[in-house]
Each structure stands twice: as C-alpha cells, then as structure tokens.
User: What shape does this take?
Amino acid sequence: MRTVSLEAKKAYARKSRSSNYRASLKLEGFTVSSSPSKTTSSKAKVLAKYAKTAKA
Assistant: This one.
C-alpha cells in the first residue's frame, strides 16, 4: 500500500473545499466562474488596497 504525504492530503483538501464551495454557490443561484484564480487575484488587490489605507 502506498502512503500519501501530508502535503498531498492538504492539497487535496484545499482543492475539494474550493470545488465544493463553487458548487454550493451554483446551487444557490449565483453565477460562478470556472476559474478560481480570478478570485484570488481580486482578493489580493482588495487586501493591498486596504493595507494602504490602514497605513495612512
């Protein structure tokens, strides 16, 4: 039997969590893009914006 590393388990959990969340949104009637990377980049932009305003 092959052992699976902890990092592989974490990656699988992260991937399945993301896909389950998108499926849940779709069931609720929200329009969901197939690419989660788009969300990540916009999230980074929002965090950067508020980090700038927090310093000022």
